[in-house]
């Protein structure tokens, strides 16, 4: 057996720090430093104008404790908070789990599966606004869904958005349909990085079929799956488009989430401070999730 791997493992790391680095630093303190500042300054200005200032202004606007007392007293806030928990909890977890399972299906090396994958990612390619508006119109009276129910079963469909739970359900379905292809492709790429030799060794030990997934695939993808779930949760809490364009928050605001409720306060009731406070009320949940996500990325290797 060659000793090359052992030599590579114990070889002393070579330091490249020396006179050349000090010279480069000295040059950077001169004309190069001015050029570096000139290139960075426009990006820093854009970041300040479009990120730091709006976020700081939002924090200042929603800093009055009385706003949150008004929120809790409002009849729309607590239902919207519950809707947000359902929308994020069910939408993210069902989407991620189905995406993980479907990524295994699309790993099969058959030509028609490759064609099917190309069709499957179409909802992700379509802009979110068009996809959600299509769902909204399909669920209208005499729309596609009611037409199918009438043709196949001879029954009249309900008025889907006149019921809170039906509206929430369709918001979640539209969200999963839109974003599941994206995460399926992400997990498909992650599965492709698992060496084939690991599966061959597992087969020798008797792990086939579902045991592949339970004892090989999922343990290797568990950390990556957690990171993706946390990231998706952060994105979904602020999802405005799905609920606003599918159910419109109806009936009578019963399907609003925090993002659409904030819009309702700010533009329909002309209470921008209350609208910002409604959006900011999700920060106590978002900050811990963001901290856990960053710590997981920093303290562990996010690779297979």
Q: Could you explain how this protein is built, in words?
A:
This protein has helices spanning 4-10, 19-28, 31-61, 65-73, 77-105, 111-120, 122-125, 128-138, 144-153, 164-192, 196-204, 210-237, 241-246, 258-268, 272-280, 283-299. The protein is mostly helical and 304 residues long.
Topology:
Elements: H1 4-10, H2 19-28, H3 31-61, H4 65-73, H5 77-105, H6 111-120, H7 122-125, H8 128-138, H9 144-153, H10 164-192, H11 196-204, H12 210-237, H13 241-246, H14 258-268, H15 272-280, H16 283-299
Strand content: under 5%
Q: Per CATH, which architecture of the largest domain?
A: Orthogonal Bundle
Radius of gyration: 26 Å
Element order: H for helix, E for strand: HHHHHHHHHHHHHHHH
> How would you characterize the largest beta sheet?
none
Q: What's the level 1 CATH class of the largest domain?
A: Mainly Alpha
User: Strand pairing plus helix content: what structural class?
Assistant: mainly alpha
CA(first)-CA(last) distance: 27 Å
Q: Note the quaternary state here.
A: single chain
Shape: globular
Count of all domains: 2
DSSP summary, beta strand count: 0
Arithmetic mean pLDDT = 85
Task: Spell out the CATH superfamily of the largest domain.
Answer: MetI-like
CATH fold name of the largest domain, please?
MetI-like fold
* Count of helical regions: 16
Low-confidence stretches: 1-26
Helix content: over 70%
């Amino acid at each position: 057996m060659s000793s090359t791997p052992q030599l590579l493992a114990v070889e002393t790391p070579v330091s490249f720090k020396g006179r050349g680095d000090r010279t480069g630093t000295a040059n950077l303190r001169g004309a190069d430093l001015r050029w570096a500042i000139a290139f960075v300054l426009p990006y820093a200005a854009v970041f300040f104008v479009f990120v730091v200032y709006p976020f700081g202004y939002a924090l200042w606007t929603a800093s009055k404790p009385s706003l949150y007392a008004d929120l809790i007293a409002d009849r729309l806030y607590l239902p919207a908070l519950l809707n947000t928990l359902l929308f994020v909890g069910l939408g993210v977890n069902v989407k991620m789990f189905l995406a993980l399972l479907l990524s295994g299906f699309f790993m099969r090396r058959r030509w028609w599966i490759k064609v099917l994958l190309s069709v499957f990612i179409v909802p992700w390619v379509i802009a979110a606004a068009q996809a959600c508006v299509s769902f909204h119109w399909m669920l209208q009276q005499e729309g596609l869904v009611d037409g199918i129910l009438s043709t196949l079963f001879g029954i009249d469909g309900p008025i889907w958005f006149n019921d809170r739970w039906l509206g929430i359900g369709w918001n979640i379905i539209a969200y999963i349909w839109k974003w599941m292809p994206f995460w399926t492709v992400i997990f498909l790429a992650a599965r492709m990085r698992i060496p084939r030799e690991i599966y061959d060794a597992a087969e020798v030990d008797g792990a086939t079929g579902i045991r592949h997934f339970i004892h090989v695939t999922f343990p290797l993808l568990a950390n990556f799956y957690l990171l993706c779930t946390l990231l998706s949760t952060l994105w979904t809490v602020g999802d405005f488009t799905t609920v606003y364009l599918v159910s419109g928050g109806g009936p009578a605001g019963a399907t609003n989430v925090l993002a659409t409720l904030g819009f309702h306060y700010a533009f329909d009731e002309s209470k921008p401070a209350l609208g910002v406070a409604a959006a900011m009320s999700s920060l106590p949940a978002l900050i811990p999730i963001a901290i856990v996500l960053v710590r997981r990325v920093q303290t562990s290797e996010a690779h297979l």
